[in-house]
């Protein structure tokens, strides 16, 4: 039997071009992670949805066993401001990504979501959401340490939005384009598979079952004379556990500036 076709798509975001060198896959000195997880969404506050299962505890254990260092915050300790850009109130007063969401190579949120939104169970600072358009600027501006975003929630990444409403300066982001459920140990299983498989192969193989439309997207800086091959080169090489492209992209915009022109490419697969 033939395996299902993986849909491979690419484009170039239509913004002002700024020169930046293409990054080679050097290992980062310290493998770091940051995890926020919401499971309790029935607290009588404006954030109420419905409760979900715990899915990042075993992932944290696997990361720790491999020498990664970092933090995991759950429910009342997980705040939307952890992923808000810190450098300016333009992204939401009280942004703390300098210390949390953008201060680690691997940045993870588990809970609820919708297209380019993360939903938190905690109502902190009169907010319970992160807009990937208005609040989050991971991999750039303050801290700028993020390289991989794992969004363990429904619908957060939409391929059609990558050139318009998804402004993260990360090498890769992984999620789903539809409503899904996630098994307790699936994030751990994905991570462990990246010792030999690329992030793209491991994510699509693990996370596309049961009608889930798994997507993994890569972005790389556009430079004069570059082609989309620079994007696919990273997409087809990066490995979390294998420690390939576990580095910040660098060359991103400073506080308040728009992103340089960039290539984006992605695969999605629904089994």
Notes on the protein architecture:
The protein has a single domain (7-270), classed as Rossmann fold (3-Layer(aba) Sandwich), CATH 3.40.50. The protein is of the alpha/beta class and 271 residues long. Residues 1-5 and 14-28 have low confidence and may be disordered. The strands form two sheets. The chain has an eight-stranded mixed beta sheet. A three-stranded antiparallel beta sheet has the order 5-6-7, with no helix packed on it. The protein is built from four helices and eleven strands; from the N terminus they run ββαβββββββααβαβ. Helix 1 (57-65) links the parallel strand 2 and strand 3 (69-74).
Which tags fit this structure?
12% helix, alpha/beta, 271 residues, eight-stranded mixed β-sheet, Rossmann fold, 11 strands, disordered N terminus, single chain
In short:
With 271 residues, this protein is an alpha/beta fold. It is built from four helices and eleven strands.
Q: How many distinct helices?
A: 4
Radius of gyration: 17 Å
N-to-C SSE string, H for helix and E for strand:
EEHEEEEEEEHHEHE
Low-pLDDT stretches? 1-5, 14-28
Which helices and strands appear, and what pairs or packs with what?
Blueprint: E1 7-12, E2 32-37, H1 57-65, E3 69-74, E4 106-110, E5 112-114, E6 117-124, E7 127-131, E8 148-152, E9 172-176, H2 186-193, H3 199-207, E10 213-221, H4 229-235, E11 262-270
Parallel strand pairs: 2-3, 2-4, 4-8, 8-9
Antiparallel strand pairs: 1-11, 5-6, 6-7, 9-10, 10-11
Helix pairs in contact: 1-2, 2-3
